[in-house]
Every structure is written in C-alpha cells, then in structure tokens.
Amino acid sequence: MAEDRIRIESYDMNEDMKMRAIDFILASQPEKAEDLAKKLKLDFDQKFNCSWQCVVGKNFGCDIGFEDRHYIYFYIGTLAILLWKAG
To answer: What's a BP term from Gene Ontology annotated to this protein (predicted)?
Structure first.
C-alpha cells in the first residue's frame, strides 16, 4: 500500500495543504521527477496562489527560506518531495 511508504520529514502547513500534496504525488506516480515537480508546483500555484517552488528527486540538499505555514518535506518510498512557498 502506497500510504505505508509515506514518511514526512518535516512540515509547517495546514492539514488540507499537507494532504493535497501527498495525495497529488500518490495519484501522479509513476512519472519523471521533473514532471512531478512542475505539476505539483502548478497545482499549488492555482489552488493556493503563486510563488510555490518544488523539488522532487532522490539525492539533493537544500537550504531554503519559506513563508510560515507553507512548507513540507516528505518521502514516498525513496522519492523525496520538497514543496514551499517563497515570496
């Protein structure tokens, strides 16, 4: 079951946003990481206003600034998803 493979590393967003991000990725697989990042970013731009950024991949590091209550970093299996609103 895909839900068993979800591991939330950290987040600072409301429950609706968190579940939308997770459900979006679960419904979109399997796709290339760059396509997932682009589609999730566009979905959040449309639903929750602009300036969302998204990184999807297996090996990356980051140091970001984000608006309060607009950040999530989670894994589905070995795929990492980082989504945040900047500016």
So the answer is: microtubule-based process
Read off the pLDDT of residues 6-54 as tens digits, 9 standing for 90 and up. 999 999 999 999 999 999 999 986 779 899 999 999 999 999 998 999 9
**Strands of the chain, DSSP E:** 6-13, 52-57, 70-76, 79-85
Least Cα distance to 40 among 57, 63, 58, 22 occurs for 22
- pTM value is 0.89
Calpha distance 60→43 (Å, rounded): 23
- Decide if 57 contacts 35 (C-beta within 8 A): no
Q: What are phi and psi of 68, to 5 degrees?
A: -55, 140
Beta pairing class for 52-57 and 6-13: unpaired
